Amino acid sequence: MTEIERHSYDVVVIGAGGSGLRAAIEARLQGKKTAIISKSLLGKAHTVMAEGGAAAAMGNVNPNDNWQVHFRDTMRGGKFLNNWRMAELHAKEAPDRVWELEHWGALFDRTKDGKISQRNFGGHEYPRLAHVGDRTGLELIRTVQQKVVALQQEDHREFGDYEARLKVWAETTVTRLLVQDGKIAGVFAYVRETGRFVVLEAPAVVLATGGIGKAFKVTSNSWEYTGDGHALALLAGGTLLNMEFVQFHPTGMVWPPSVKGILVTESVRGDRGILLNSEGKRFMFKYIPEVFKDKYATTPEEADRWYDDPDNNRRPPELLPRDEVARAINTEVKEGRGSPHGGVFLTVVGRMPGGAEEIKRRLPAMHHQFKELADVDITSEPMEVGPTCHYVMGGVEVDPDTAAALVPGLFAAGEVAGGMHGSNRLGGNSLTDLLVFGRRAGMGAAEYVDALGEDRPAPAQEEIDRAVAEALAPFEREGGENPYAVHAELQQTMNDLVGIIRTEEELKQALEALDKLRTRVANVSVQGGHGYNPGWHLALDLRNMLIVSECIAKAALERTESRGGHTREDHPGMSAEWRKVNLVCRLAGNADDPRVELKRQPMEPMREDLIALFDNDELKKYLTAEELPAEAKDAA
Ligand code: FAD
């Protein structure tokens, strides 16, 4: 019989990025015995890779900024498909979460008068991103990890045990949520180093597992981002919202091939970088869409004046939301005006008043990245860049205030949660999303545990046995498929058929290909021992990537309009009718071979005081006639 270690907690948090650590801190502050599980080493999460900064309307650089402006920008960026309550909570609470970080020891860059400095970013009306050079995520993670250690030291003083109320399970991967009588009862996981299995019993679980990028071939995401949390939620009976919305960041490296997809931060454009095609033309002026026409400069002269005089000039079109810039680059390349390696040029050469030294000071990580990986000196040469799969807006359907998912005891925060960013996330909004909703998820989980009292569900042995059998199955199949080959085919399918521009025909082809891949995923086999066996781990991750890919392709086929991170060549317009619709995925059918089922769910109408924050002329671009406020209807 397989030996299984068992432990018991109040709250288990899956993921040690910004949202997971913030959730765990909150659960522990509420007095709950909390475990943090991380597939990779502690400190190595996507959050650490975040470069540009954390968006919060603190008004340090432009005092006109406030939560209402931030809310409007977020809704516009998401093309009004955002869960407006989440966007409201985020805009209101983000400044407090950034100040809290500072209170816990984060050292942000400063303005001349000593305030936290804030930089410009795409889609944000005012300079809003609190940052530490282009290494903001590193500082965020360092700070919350330090807070975890401080709490562990407190517990050591009180209980003589550092891990009495906060334990980190590093390099441990959850493969199943355990559910009893419809409620969360714990998690099943394996430890990478030894391959041994563990069951952590807990009535509340917070999913904070990040994104899904590894389902695509060209991505800025690293190996851990295989959609585990999304799939775990579905397998436990939860639902996913609007999975068709995948963000392709406009600027990933395109050369050399070994680094294709690695991110080139938007700060490059926020700090005066411009995009040029092979003819040397600053092409973004051509691509300003109708809904943004009055907000973006139409000449290079006005765009350049904006950096020093934002009150009297409109923004450069390089700072349009990401979906717009990514599509523009795609078109330039497709129409034959691309760079030698299939991207376009992004340059800061001669653009900063302080010359090469200022470039190195403001963009140290980018300078280092291009020098080391591509032998390009960005102080004297342009970068070659192109779109890369970066972020998933779709995710676990949650209650905005408590982060509770549909399954009692399950919570989700950060990139794995859906709703907050609508059809397109603004840069910088993720880091504050992690902090705002990480805290709320920790609080929601603690309150749920309190309400449950002594009546805690216990995991059933048969369910644990099934999880063991599922995890060991790849060792038991002889002569099956190679997981790496199956993964490569899945990624190619998603890249080619469910990528940045989509059509009905290609999406149907994708669903057929994914159906065939289902049989192959079920037949992957691996060899070797259980300790540090990457082939085995990939074999287990494939289940999750396949489920998530099916959700994305199905929802993309269903939504016959183009909005944010979902562009249908055969349905190019944005439809006010579709804005009222959320697409919700769940698993249905045979538990051993479940299928993704898709449902249209009406969007809850926006609260009146929030609608009143927008001009009627703008609302008419997004809402149906019957949704418009009375005076706008009259004028229409
Ligand atoms: P992550 O930080 O991705 O952490 C996920 C955690 O879950 C990890 O610890 C992982 O090991 C764990 N995990 C996953 N699956 C399992 C499992 N099965 N079992 C156990 N553990 C598991 N956003 C901004 O706002 N500003 C920026 O400047 C910015 N720059 C970015 C730059 C890059 C290169 C990238 C990739 C993203 C950037 N983003 C930025 C986006 C942002 O960093 C991410 O969306 C955010 O960090 C996600 O945080 P998270 O807490 O949801 O998850």
TrEMBL record:
Residues 500-527 form a coiled coil. Residues 487-605 form the Fumarate reductase/succinate dehydrogenase flavoprotein-like C-terminal domain. Substrate binds at residues 249, 265, 390, 425. Keywords: Coiled coil, FAD, Flavoprotein, Oxidoreductase. The keyword Magnesium does not apply. One of its GO terms (molecular function) is steroid dehydrogenase activity, acting on the CH-CH group of donors. This is Succinate dehydrogenase / fumarate reductase flavoprotein subunit.
